[in-house]
Amino acid sequence: MSGLAVSDAHVRLGDKAVLNGVSATFAAGQVTTIVGPNGAGKSTLLTALAGLRRPDRGQILLGDADIYGLAPRVRAQRVGYLPQIPEVAWAVDVRTLVALGRTPFIGARGLTAVDEAAVDRALAAAGVESMAHRNVMTLSGGERARVLLARALAGEPQWLLADEPLTGLDPGYQLEIAGLFRKMAVESGGVIVTLHDLHMALRMSDRVLVLAEGRLLADGKPIEALSSDILAKAYGVQTRLWDGDAGPVIEIVGEVLGRRG
Amino acid sequence: MKTISRPLLFAALMVALVLLSLASLSAGKVWVPWSAWLSSADDPRWAIVFELRLPRTILAIAVGTALGLSGAVLQGYTRNALADPGILGVSSMAAFGAVMTLYLGMSVSMPWILPVGAMIGAMIGIVVLLVLSSGSYSILTFLLAGMILNMVAGAGVSLALNLAPTPWAVSEIIDWLLGSLADRSIDDVRMAVPVIAVGCALLLTVGRALDALTLGDVGARSLGIRLERTRFVLALGVGLATGASVAVTGVIGFVGLVTPHVVRPLVGARPGALLLPSALAGAVIVLMADIAVRITPSVVELKLGVAMAALGGPFFLMLLIKLRQRAA
Predict the structure, then answer these.
(1) In this structure, are residues B293 and B104 in contact, taking their beta carbons and an 8 Å threshold?
(2) C-alpha distances in Å from residue B123, one per residue of B45, B99, B133, B156, B248
(3) Within an 8 Å CB–CB cutoff, is residue A133 touching chain B?
(4) Contact, A64 vs A144, CB < 8 A?
(5) Is B253 strand, coil or helix?
(6) Which residue in A182, A166, A179 sits closest to A31, CA to CA?
(7) Residues of A186-197 as b/e, b for ≥16 C-beta within 10 angstroms?
(8) Which residues in A lie closer than 8 A to residue B263 (C-beta atoms)?
(9) Which residues of B touch A (CB under 8 A)?
(10) Is A12 helix (H, G, I), strand (E, B) or coil?
């Protein structure tokens, strides 16, 4: 199992420095969450890590190899990526869509028994077996999000990188999918997600990265990274961390005036 | 979702193609019964079948295959069910190339120059398209580049008509632009079919990339698809297949647009699964239309391009209405 690391990544979009020297090492077996205000560079960092957007400066290493030196197919077999707003262009059935996740493995003969088995496992893991023959266009938002997650799981990647995978899901599914990420991290590799929900970040992560204006403000255990000081700096809000019945809770108390600008 | 099995569909399309081919050899101003095919070469009907109708039949199949497949590939790539070879500007550039040879009057002394002009036009179209849309994954850029080409080629054709030296040249250009398979020879077959075959072979390799593109550009790239390469192969394949088709028949619209729509309800919407059925169905459609054109009683034979638009338009409208009813 190879680690994933980013060193000194810089990305400019137009005249804005979206990433400004980000370095981090991701360990296998963990769920790492990247949080930060809108426009902090979370999605850009995730696409860079996924091998889909080469940083202008800096390097992404998968094991010992530069991820941008790998053949796209090889990279895709090892790193799965779930975009923030996943597109589905055609009215295919759920199983066909999930099977697209096997694309990096398909040879000249099409889907093999091995591929079909992986698709079955992915459908089961995301809890969407029962809708396998439904048209994707007829699904509700939550169903669709889980189907697209199943698509990412079908490739059985070592690393799963998901951009805001919990957005639009009800609390039950949020917890279920958080559990799925945990299971995946333990069994097959590592999971890196971006989140807006600080409470979920606290609850589901082994480690949290706080990103603001293209720089890392914190990188560590959730409790430490999501401290009041850091959140005040990142978001300009005042927070309080207290012990709830089911573990620590982040309460947003109010705005910190003059912090953002 | 309900679809029919692929082997069954292929078998049905192949049977239709064989039956239509036989009909195509027999049908026309003079009906040639099948018994006459085996008669000696002295029989004038033998010449009608093998020197006139055989090339015409082969070309109808080749052109239909090229257009149906190109349409399916382009709809898959652009994720837009309204795309067809016309949208890339390749058809118009090929037409422009051919019209230039007519305008300059070169095709009188050298009949082979017209198809060559069409192919050169198509090739220039592809190169311009790739240059205009390089350095970007965006479909919008690709479509815009195609639209620009279309407009430039259309303006070029208009200019040639405008400046045409004689009314005779004008009528020749218009006649050719309308699209027809009449009076094609075995030389046209020799010229067009190999190029169409190479183009179609290229296009059949992009199926998996088109499937992955169902998830969008980023989705496809995250699955290890090299979009630059896909686009290159696709542009080259469409250019060759469409360019060679336009070279022998003039512009025949609607096939590329309609065929994938006919096939989609039968095999499902996965773009890769549409390619081969669309190729076969395109051949069936063009062959049917060409037979219809020949047996329609009229003084002057109807133009295939005109007939296709006349039949294709209402058919497509019906399809849309049916789809809307089902969605409602």
Answers:
(1) no
(2) 39, 15, 15, 16, 15
(3) yes
(4) no
(5) coil
(6) A182
(7) eebbbbbbbbeb
(8) none
(9) 1, 79, 208, 211-216, 218-219, 221-226, 268-271
(10) strand
ipTM of model: 0.90
To test the contact with chain B by mutation, choose from A74, A77, A81, A103 the residue with the greatest count of B C-beta atoms within 10 A, namely A103
Asked if B101 and B114 touch (Cβ cutoff 8 Å), the reply is: yes
Q: In whole angstroms, what is the distance from residue A241 CA to residue A218 CA? A: 16
Q: Helix H segments across B54-165?
A: 54-78, 85-88, 90-103, 106-109, 113-133, 139-162
Rounded-to-integer distance, Cα A38 and Cα B253, Å: 48
A84-98, A236-250, B57-71, range with greatest mean pLDDT:
B57-71
Residues of A in contact with B327 (CB under 8 A): none
CATH number of B6-327: 1.10.3470.10
pLDDT value of residue A261: 46
Amino acid, res. B93: M
Report which of residues B326 and A120 the model is more confident about.
A120
Judge: B219–A83 Cβ closer than 8 Å, yes or no: yes
Distance of CA A154 to the CA centre of its chain: 16
Give pTM, 2 decimals: 0.89
A4-85+158-255: CATH homologous superfamily?
Answer: P-loop containing nucleotide triphosphate hydrolases (3.40.50.300)
Q: What is the pLDDT of residues B69-117, one digit of tens each?
A: 999 999 998 888 777 787 778 889 999 998 988 888 777 677 778 888 8
- For tokens 């009229």, name the residue: B298
Burial B170-194 (b: 16+ CB within 10 A, else e): bebbeebbbbbbeebeeebbebbbe
Domain ranges of chain B: 6-327
- Rounded CA gap, B244 and B69, in Å? 14
State the angle between helix axes of B113-133 and B227-249 in degrees (0 to 180), rounded to the nearest 10: 160
B225 interaction partners in chain A (CB closer than 8 Å):
72, 103
- DSSP label at A13? E
- Nearest by CB: A90 against B222, B224, B271: B271
Asked whether the beta carbons of A165 and A145 are under 8 A apart, the reply is yes
Helix, strand, coil % in chain B, rounded to nearest 5:
80, 0, 20
Q: Do B219 and A103 touch (CB under 8 A)?
A: no
Q: H-type helices in chain A, by residue range? A: 42-49, 72-78, 94-99, 113-125, 141-154, 171-187, 198-204, 222-225, 228-235
Tokens matching residue B242: 């469409």
- Three-class SS state of B84: coil
Which residue from A minimizes the CA distance to B271?
Answer: A90
Listed residue (B47, B58, B83, B17) closest to B271, CA to CA: B83
